[in-house]
Amino acid sequence: MKLHERMRELRKERKETQVQVAQSIGITDRQYQRFEAGEQKPGFENLCALADHFGVSLDYLAGRMDER
Known about the structure:
The chain is mainly α.
């Protein structure tokens, strides 16, 4: 699974909107939309913030492993 697919899956599991996730990690909603659409890749700080927000490891978020 690709990063943007994993982000969408995790967000939907938590029943959050893109705006809610973006606000939580301190970015604009448009920037988050680009991440989730696969148009742009998040930098390291945003990756860490996303992993913390969703409560998963960076490897799981990036799709490198299936175990949370």
